[in-house]
Specification:
Length: 380
Amino acid sequence: MNKVIVTGGNHHNTYGVIRALADKKIKPFLLLVNEDSNSFLLKSILLEDSYVVKTEQDAISFLIKNCYEFNGAVVIACSDGMSSALDSSRNVLDDFYKLPGTKEQGRVTTLMDKETMSQLGVEVGFNVPKSWLIRSVNDIDCVEYPCITKPILSKDGHKDDISICHCRKDLEKVIKEGSCYEYQVQRFITKDFEYQLIGLSLNEGEIVIIPGFSRCIRPCPRTNTGFLHYESLNRISAPIEKCKSFVRKTEYSGLFSIEFLRDNKGVDYFMEMNFRNDGNAICVTSSGTNLPYIWYLANSTLGYKEELSHSTFHSVYVMPEFPDFESFVYTGKISIIKWIKDIIRTDTFMVFNLKDIKPFIFCVKRLLKRFYRKFLVRTN
């Protein structure tokens, strides 16, 4: 039986994959990329074992060093950084591990470039917002406002690099103070809502599985993670076939998500594709289709078709309880009564899990300590 290595950061994205595999009685090995070992993930009873490294390159070194011990292991990437690192080391790792990505080393990292993705999106017929590639303030004369800035490579940027700019002065500030050497600046679209198509590609896009779509009800700032409703594809007019064509053109195999924004006129705009497990993907598992497990089966001798044929679908509400509380309840943007009502209708939380309660308790303690420190600062 093949082992499974789940690798990524200290995030509910990684935990979602661990939980999905646990539903099928598989305990994965966690290769955690984190500055220290103070992680809620390490409190989980759903792991076979774990190892903590500080950087993605350290993770690659670990995989190379332990390639015979883990020979044949199925790898699942849960961050842009790890997806790119695996891609950049494919020629070294491919003989020992079942990797997500493409057969060509470096191709996924090239595809992560937002301008490259936009061009590919145009080729398959997506609506793509007008954009500009910006390296310095000398490049911004042609930009139209309002606009939104994004790191050209998500793995290289921070949340603060994503900003809505209403004038030249705003844009200059982001470029001068931001952490990126290069930005994609897009025309800002007034949205009605945003949605994701979370899926799995097998055999370089020969088979593309997209069970439903996630509609974000209350997005947390600077991220597409938020209180969401996962629904049937019958409830939205989405460019599914174009998405499958897009994935085939990338020649990618593995877990993915494709993000869209629908404007106030009903037009859908392609935002980007994530070449990894998505942070919201627990909604797909909760709805009845276990994509991480199907990826595991497709890369083992067990076969995946029976599992796929037995998959069901029901709509679910999913909440990232800690970011949602901090972003909306703690700041007073929504009332505690409203939040409790949303909790009551939530089917799945991104950390709270009765089968594995210690990670949740750890996060509660960490949140209370942070609030206490803020209280001390205010009173002093």
